[in-house]
From TrEMBL:
The keyword Ion transport appears for this protein: yes
Transmembrane segments: 20-40, 60-81, 164-185, 205-222, 229-253, 278-298, 310-333, 353-380, 401-425, 437-456, 463-485, 491-511
Organism: Musa troglodytarum (fe'i banana)
All copies of domain K+ potassium transporter C-terminal, residue ranges: 543-781
Keyword Membrane: yes
GO molecular function: potassium ion transmembrane transporter activity
InterPro entries recorded: K+_transporter, K_trans_C, K_trans_N
Protein name as catalogued: Potassium transporter
Taxonomic superkingdom: Eukaryota
Location of the protein in the cell: Membrane
Primary location class: membrane
Domain K+ potassium transporter integral membrane: 23-530
Length: 782
């Protein structure tokens, strides 16, 4: 009997482990491409100065010791054991941490937030995953007493909220900067293997053109998406990891089997004591061994915690250690180095294997670069959704995988910048200095935000947060100082890029907030609409009129401005607000928040459509169908709020309800006769016959439970939908008020207006037919 029960249980466990192992295998090609190619340039960047000329192995053992402990403490201890637990409903990255803090401390700068948003399932999901610190995640600890005063501090002082936002944007800017630098250094380092097969005078004329050609091809292929070749990514990285592992093991046993002694931390102390300032500056090269570690957290949404942990702990981590130990073993027996490139990766590869390894290295570098570029597109999409980046064209390259996006403008800008730094530096050392500073700043931002998450979200004792910041912050500040000292040797690039990006983000965010504040201050009270009577004071024509607004209550000024000049409108009036909420995904059944604007006879509704920062916006036809269905569902269920619907009251003037787009009209297709052409067109008629037109007619479902007034309201909605929709969009012009400061005038009149004129329109307006669109121009004096 026991054996039978075991036979029923074990297959499920085996299946579960199979799926985890498969995800771990797939994560190797998406998450670890950048991290796995770091052996190509770590030692070359570290020994770029005069350290390699010493006849002693102390410097070599010291660098290997630093590499080992850096790999162990940062990716393994910090990310795998701690940071990966801070997921935002399965999503990771800088904005995931910021989103957690926004929800728990209410420090966000999303202007049109609602109390109803806090009823979302993703909003209230428990975020305490740190089971190793507490047996019961929901049980209060010492942090329960610490969190309130820290939360009050953040909520009370706007300066602290702005600092938190700037910190998140800084991390985002550095991630985008990494999208420029990682492809450059990865591809250039992989191509540098060509220098071993040609003279020093010739290889410098070959490396840069070949690297640039590969980069151009890489960025040119982004528009086709990665789903077509994605199945090759994992095998390429696996083969690469096997190559560096086998070569590393061979070098250890053949050249120096005692290299394992360098794993002792004593050699780090000995290295710094002997090399002093030169050794400290060389830590900027050691830092490159953990480039790509942040991808473990940023790409968490595509995989699972278990799969990413297994892939790193049992495959990537041992492979990298063998690779670095093997290179150190070879270098320890080859102190006479004539050229700088001799300290690189390829010199430790047996001569017969160099060409195959070179080909695999280039493919692995392309895979690693591809992952970083895709991650850059993803984080810009998040910034755009939360109003922190100008609107850009977002193309979803895969209908099955929502996270795969392509942004044309950003892609070509990244390509030009990548080619510029490759041609400008033409050197692994300067590229490494630039990339190292970008990577360590992202890690410092993660450490700072993570310490707040430990207290505010996990409700742990503040002592644990302080220990986390002090321990990992000390390590990262050490590397940060070593990278910053090389500001003039390439480290200025990420600083310059982040300064430009931060300026753009802050200007856009500031202008967006000022525009919303103007809308709130100038909105028309609902009493104005009620005073017009059921006819609303003007002619009601057939169809549905959608007035887009950022407001969640009240009547937007563009509507009153419109009807003042054109006293006619549609029989069904819908005030539509499409907004983002600080969660990664919103369930379809929670997406629509619907309410009436005025009595039932007015046929006026407010619909708030909520998207997470990772959600895909639906196309026009599907969105229209769901929008009308949600209004119909609201009409049908308006008198039955208690039947499983969540009710919310906003500002006391409108009662709204969360509904799903479950209501469906029946469609009947009727064939309309086509008028016969005139005599002059008879010849054309014979050559190309005109097919009869098909007209879709919507019919109410037969239900005896519907009341007469409800059926009449649904009938009006059905007839309006049959007649078609018209979109009323505001076309705003921002101007700073007279008497504003010079900085504000520059930011609003030039900065924000320049970005607004040159960025894309709202996502919902891209696919709307021009014949169905009306634009109302308004000047905003902010």
């Amino acid at each position: 009997m026991d054996l039978e029960s075991g036979s029923h249980i074990n297959p499920a466990k085996r299946q579960s482990w199979r799926s985890v192992v498969m995800l771990a295998y797939q994560s190797l090609g998406v998450v670890y491409g950048d991290l796995s190619t770091s052996p190509l340039y770590v030692y070359k960047s570290t020994f770029a100065d005069d350290i390699e000329h010493s006849e002693s192995n102390d410097e070599i053992y010291g660098v290997l010791s630093f590499v080992f402990w850096t790999l162990t403490l940062v990716p393994l201890l910090k990310y795998v054991l701690i940071v990966l637990r801070a997921d935002d409903n399965g999503e990771g990255g800088t904005f995931a941490l910021y989103s957690l803090l926004v929800r728990h401390a209410r420090v966000g700068f999303i202007p049109n937030g609602q109390v109803a948003d806090e009823e979302l399932l993703a909003y209230n999901k428990k975020d305490d995953h740190l089971g190793l610190l507490n047996g019961d995640p929901s049980a209060p600890t010492g942090g329960a007493m610490t969190a309130p005063w820290m939360r009050r501090l953040l909520e009370k002082h706007q300066i602290s909220q702005r600092m938190l936002l700037v910190l998140a944007l800084l991390g985002t800017c550095m991630v985008i900067g990494d999208g420029v630098l990682t492809p450059a250094i990865s591809v250039f380092s992989a191509v540098s293997g060509l220098e071993l097969s040609m003279s020093k005078e010739h290889h410098k004329y070959v490396e840069v053109p070949v690297a640039c050609l590969i980069l151009v091809c890489l960025f040119a292929l982004q528009q086709y998406g990665t789903h077509r070749l994605g199945f090759l990514f994992a095998p390429i990285v696996v083969i690469w990891l096997m190559c560096i592992s086998v070569i590393g093991a061979y070098n250890i046993f053949y050249w120096n089997p005692h290299v394992y002694q360098a794993l002792s931390p004593y050699y780090m102390y000995k290295f710094l004591k002997k090399t002093r300032r030169g050794g400290w500056m060389s830590l900027g090269g050691v830092l490159l061994c953990i480039t790509g570690s942040e991808a473990m957290y940023a790409d968490l949404g595509h995989f699972s915690q278990s799969s990413i942990k297994i892939a790193f702990t049992f495959v990537v981590y041992p492979s990298l250690l063998l690779a670095y130990m093997g290179q150190a073993a070879y270098i320890s027996q080859h102190h006479v180095i004539q050229n700088n490139y001799r300290i690189g990766f390829y010199v430790s590869v047996p001569e017969r294997l160099r060409w195959p390894v070179l080909a695999i290295a280039i493919l692995a570098a392309v895979v690693g670069s591809q992952s970083v570029i895709t991650g850059t597109f993803s984080i810009i999409k998040q910034c755009t959704a939360l109003g922190c980046f100008p609107r850009v064209k977002i193309v979803h390259t895969s209908s099955k995988i929502g996270g795969q996006v392509y942004i044309p403008e950003i892609n070509w800008i990244l390509m030009l910048l990548c080619l510029a730094v490759t041609i400008g530096f033409r050197d692994t050392k300067h590229l490494g200095n630039a990339q190292g500073l970008a990577v360590i700043i992202v890690m410092l931002v993660t450490t700072c935000l993570m310490s707040l998450v430990i207290v505010l979200c996990w409700h742990k004792n503040i002592f644990l947060a302080i220990c986390f910041v002090v321990f990992f912050g000390t390590i990262e500040v050490l590397f940060f100082s070593a990278s910053l000292i090389k500001f003039l040797e390439g480290a200025w690039v990420p600083i310059a890029l982040s300064f430009v990006l931060m300026t753009v983000m802050c200007i856009w965010h500031y202008g967006t907030r000022k525009k919303y504040e103007f809308d709130v201050q100038n909105k028309v009270p609902i009493n104005w609409l009620l005073s017009l009577g059921p006819a609303l004071g003007f002619v009601r024509v057939r169809g549905i009129g959608l007035i887009h607004t950022e407001l969640i209550s009240g009547i937007p000024a563009i509507f009153s401005h419109f009807v003042t000049n054109l006293p006619a409108f549609h029989q069904v009036l819908v005030f539509l607000c499409i907004k983002s909420v600080p969660v990664p995904h919103v369930l379809p059944e929670e997406r629509f928040l619907v309410g009436r604007v005025g009595p039932k006879e007015y046929r006026s509704y407010r619909v708030i459509v909520r998207y997470g920062y990772h959600d895909i916006h639906k196309d026009e036809l599907e969105f229209e169908k769901d929008l009308v269905s949600s209004i119909a569902e609201f009409i049908q269920s308006a008198g039955h709020e208690q039947n499983g619907y969540v009710e919310a009251t906003e500002n006391g003037d409108e009662k709204m309800m969360v509904v799903s787009a479950g209501f469906r009209f029946h469609e009947e297709r009727a064939v309309e006769p086509v008028e016969a052409p005139g005599p002059s067109n008879s010849k054309a008629m014979h050559s190309s016959p005109i097919p009869p037109k098909k007209r879709v007619r919507f019919v109410l479902p037969r239900s005896p439970k519907l009341e007469k007034s409800t059926r009449e309201e649904l009938q009006d909605l059905m007839e309006a939908r049959e007649a078609g929709m018209a979109f009323i969009l505001g076309h705003s012009y921002m101007r700073a008020k007279s008497g504003s400061s010079l900085i504000k005038r520059l930011v609003i009149n030039f900065g924000y207006e320049f970005l607004r004129r040159n960025c894309r329109g709202p996502m919902y307006a891209v696919s709307i037919p021009h014949a169905s669109t009306l634009e109302v121009g308004m000047i905003y004096n902010v």
